[in-house]
Amino acid sequence: MKISDLTGRRVLVPGGTGAVGEGVVRAYLAAGADVVVPTRSGEREKEFRTLLGDAATAHLHLMTHDYTTFARAEQLAATMVDRLGGIDDVVSPIGGWWAGRQLGEIDESDWTSAFTGLATAHMAVARAVLPRLSGRGAFTVIVGESATYPVPGSGLVSMEQAAVSMMRKVLAAEAGERLRVNAFVLGPVRTRVMPGQPDWISADQIGAVAVALSGSPSESREVLLRTSAEAEQVLA
To answer: Between β-strands 189-190 and 201-202, what pairing exists: parallel, antiparallel or unpaired?
Structure first.
C-alpha cells in the first residue's frame, strides 16, 4: 500500500506514548506529518524518543504537558497552535484497562480513575481542539469493542468506552459537514508489549488506517477494526 504524503500536516496524539499510540505516531511520522505527543515528564520524553529510534525524526514534537482537565487540555491546544501554527488532525488513543470488581463492589477511587478520569480526558481534549481544527484532517477517538457489550468484572471500562463512543456521535452530528469526527472500534491489539495472536489487529495497522483516512476526504464515520483482516479491508 502506498503511504499517504501528509507533509505539512500538524497532528496531535494524546496518549501517543502508549502501546497503541506508538503505532499511530510512527505512521504519521512516516507520512511526513509533524506530530505532537504530550508526555508526563521529561524523563518519559527521553524514553519514548529512544523507543522510536530512527522513526523519531525532526517532525516529532514531544511536550511535557497534561491534558486530563479542561484547563490543561486548553493550554496544550493553545501551545500547539502557538508553536506549529494550527492543528489539522487529532487521534486520541486515550485509555487504560481496569478489571477485578463487579459494579456493585466498586469504590469511589475505582469510579474516579476508570470512568470519570478517562471520560473527562477525552471530553477535555475534544473541547479544546475541535474549535481549532483547520478542517483539512479529522478528529478520531479510539475505543475498544467493549464499548458495545458488557464485560463482567470490567464494567467501568465498558461504560467509559460507551460514553466516549456516544460523545463522538454527538460531536459528529454537531459538526455536520464542517469537520470529520471519527471513531475506531478495536478488538484485541498486537503491540510491542502484547504479541497476541496473528489475527489480532496490530498497532501499526491502526496507525496506517488513521493516516489513510486523514489523507482521503470522507464523511465522519465509525470504523470497525476488530481484526487484522478488517484493517486490511479498510486500507484496500
So the answer is: parallel
Q: Angle CA(137)–CA(212)–CA(226) in degrees, nearest 5?
A: 110
Taking the whole predicted model, whether its pTM rises above 0.85 is answered as yes
Tens place of pLDDT for every residue, the chain, 236 residues? 456 899 999 999 999 999 999 999 999 999 999 999 999 898 999 999 999 999 999 999 999 999 999 999 999 999 999 999 999 999 999 987 888 889 999 999 999 999 999 999 999 999 999 999 999 999 999 999 999 988 899 999 999 999 999 999 999 999 999 999 999 999 999 998 888 899 999 999 999 999 999 988 789 999 999 999 999 999 98
In CATH, what number is assigned to the domain containing residue 86? 3.40.50.720
Query: Whole domain around residue 28: which residue ranges?
Result: 10-235
Instruction: Report the number of distinct structural domains present in the chain.
Output: 1
User: How far apart are the C-alpha atoms of 200 and 87, rounded to whole Å?
Assistant: 31
Q: Is residue 213 part of a domain?
A: yes
Q: Report if residue 104 sits inside a domain.
A: yes
- Asked if residue 1 is part of any domain, the answer here is no
Positive or negative, the Cα torsion across 11, 38, 180, 26?
Answer: positive
Q: What distance in Å separates the CA atoms of residue 229 and residue 149, rounded to the nearest whole number? A: 21
Residue 86 is placed in which grid cell?
A: 494550527
* Apex 163 CA angle, 189 and 197, nearest 5: 10
Is 159 contained in some domain? Answer: yes
Contact 202, 191 (CB under 8 A): yes
Q: How far is CA 165 from the centre of its chain?
A: 13
